[in-house]
Here is the input.
Amino acid sequence: MKINPLIPLTELVDIFDHLREPVSLVERNKRELKYPYYGATGQIGLIDDFKQNGKFILLGEDGAPFLEPNKPKAYIVEGKCWVNNHAHVLKGKVGLCDDDYLCYALNWVDYSNAVTGSTRLKLPQSMMSNLMIPKPSLYEQRQIAAQLKVQFEKVENARKAIEEQRLEIQNLANAIIYQSINERKTNRYNLNKVLNEIKKGIGENWADYPVLGATRNGLALAKEPPGKNPQRYKPVVPGTVFYNPMRILIGSIAFVDDDEIHGITSPDYVVLQGKEGLLDSRWFYYWLRSPLGEKCISSLARGAVRERMLFNRLANGEIELPEYAIQKTASKALKELKYIKMNIEKKMDDISVLPNRLLTQAFNID
Here is the structure.
């Protein structure tokens, strides 16, 4: 049975958007960093003064994942803080709506009839009346909020445990790389001497292949279909490493293993293969994602994170290579780690959908 009645959000809350004020990062850095400074989805820095003092629910106005049910759109802040113009500042009406309940409800509610825009969704204050919130009694609201708090704490503890396992796997991969380098004498090479760049597009049969992307977690299906000139998309076959040149500094690097599907990737991506007998591609992928690779990438970077790092820049980097046979042995061990990591990622995916399921159950939605 569903919770009734559903009433417009604006009948349940007081709106304090007049307390918002945006301050640029440059300006904030000139001030004493003392109080939290909040935006659409969380804290984004510190500032020297506060505009809010108390308990409030911040609901994204723009930049929040309104149409993604497994991601939060609202969060609670308490104490002295400053909120910019990318989040609505709300509080449940006294005696009518519990703040904790309100936050949970705002992370469950359907935003499809309230947001505007196409590429960057926006929730104007004038549209918040389209958000329909269940309104049980205040006593029931507090019961629901208390139950959800316990359940969400359990989910968060499980997420932290999985995150620790993910870190342990990464540390083990790094240890395998270090061990292979320290096992015997190594040779120093420029990366352009041990890597081949793949520049040629896939051609007219591009539609036969899935589009693959590089993320912080490695290989993933691309979110967008091929754009203009899809025949220029580059093939990424087993044994290739590729990266997003705009995001390599934050780890958007992928590797297609020998048991994974042949695909294509954006012509803007850099696609590489190790030269046979010199560099094992799987070993190189894990090296590139290790502290050694991060140090190499950082030493070559210029300017802002968003600057492109094409192969001609990466090619100037240096690498200490163990013998090819030692790389292959390490590579085999790294492949075994991949299956453990996949299992961990599956658990993380399962955990990520739990909050929405708990909210749906709490609000008795069929």
